[in-house]
From TrEMBL:
Residues 276-298 are annotated as: Disordered. Pfam families: AraC_N, HTH_18. The lineage of its organism: Bacteria, Bacillati, Actinomycetota, Actinomycetes, Streptosporangiales. PANTHER family: ARAC-FAMILY TRANSCRIPTIONAL REGULATOR, TRANSCRIPTIONAL REGULATORY PROTEIN. One of its GO terms (molecular function) is sequence-specific DNA binding. It comes from the Bacteria. InterPro entries: Homeodomain-like_sf, HTH_AraC, HTH_AraC-typ_CS, Tscrpt_reg_AraC-type_HTH, Tscrpt_reg_HTH_AraC_N. Signal peptide: none annotated. Gene3D superfamilies: Homeodomain-like (1.10.10.60). Residues 193-291 form the HTH araC/xylS-type domain. Keywords: DNA-binding, Transcription, Transcription regulation. This is AraC-like DNA-binding protein.
Length: 298
């Protein structure tokens, strides 16, 4: 079934891909790339992403991940990554589908599972990102969800049912520990997710790690260890990555206003901003600003 399933998945994605990525099914996006893309800073939110064709590569902190046709990515918290389709052409475009995951929906499925049906919890907090090979059952459910695009009348009734099936396949699959913790409001992963959101909301402000550890309801040492496990970065490195991503978006809109952008994202020293920007993106803010497309802020 594997080759035939991937062929059908590719066909569905080919036919229904749109420039804005959206589909008539809520929380479902289709990705298409007709040429290798430069590594682009972006945010992986809470999502399941399946590649049907091509190779997607992304970096989180110092870790580099790769997933290709028949594989899927799970992201359980909002993480700043650098991602791109490394292999894609007009003849063989990169194709993928993304499904936004909601903790409340995961929790609902968990509550419906009978005792003993769920695997045991692993030790410690799982990483925020993981890649696995999709099982035939998961691929089948994703394909049936996308088939609804050919039968729009069925979407309202059937899409929620198939999404629940997809969640169950994830919960009981290779990366089930991530998805299960994602749906439990008192899990270590959920506590770290609160801290991540706090840093994202206050990225322009200096903070003490002790204060963010309190947001996560953890001791400083436990918080440091768990934050690193989830994000592959320290809290300060994470904030720096958010600042630089925001700066790049703002430079796309105002390329001549480098000093003001530096201040707005929280840098007191323009030279430090330029140094860290170059280290992150491979060129100075002024060089990058001249080549950023006006629509990059999207």
């Amino acid at each position: 079934m594997g080759i035939m399933a991937l062929d059908e998945l590719r066909d569905l994605l080919h036919r229904h891909a749109r420039p804005d990525l959206a589909t008539p099914i809520e929380d479902v996006l289709i990705f298409r790339a007709e040429q290798p893309q430069p590594p682009t800073p972006t945010t992986y939110g809470k999502v399941l992403a399946v590649v049907a064709q091509g190779t997607k590569r992304f970096a989180l902190g110092e870790k580099v991940y790769e997933y290709r046709e028949g594989q899927y990515l799970i992201a359980s918290v909002d993480l700043p990554v650098t991602a791109h389709f490394a292999r894609a052409s007009a003849e063989l475009p990169g194709l993928g589908v993304g499904l936004t995951l909601h903790p409340a929906a995961v929790a609902e499925v968990l509550l419906q599972a009978a005792p003993g049906e769920l695997p045991e919890h692993g030790e410690g907090v799982p990483p925020g990102l993981a890649v696995s090979t999709a099982s035939p059952e998961l691929l089948d459910a994703v394909i049936r969800l996308l088939r609804l695009l050919d039968r729009p009348r069925d979407i309202t009734v059937l899409a929620p049912l198939i999404k629940r099936e997809i969640l169950w396949r994830l919960i009981t699959g290779d990366q089930g520990a991530i998805v299960r913790q994602f749906g439990l409001p008192d899990s270590s992963l959920s506590h770290i997710a609160r801290a991540i959101q706090w840093i994202r909301d206050h990225y322009t402000q200096p903070f003490r790690v002790e204060d963010v550890a309190k947001v996560a309801s953890m001791s400083v040492s436990t918080f440091h260890r768990n934050f690193q496990a989830v994000t592959a970065m320290s809290p300060i490195q994470f904030q720096k990555r958010i600042r630089l991503q925001q700066a790049r978006l703002q430079l796309a809109a105002a390329p001549a206003d480098i000093a003001a952008v530096s201040r707005r994202v929280g840098y007191e020293s323009p030279s430090q901003f330029s140094r860290e920007y170059r280290r992150q993106f491979g060129m100075s803010p002024s060089q990058d600003a001249t080549r950023l497309p006006a629509g990059a802020a999207r």
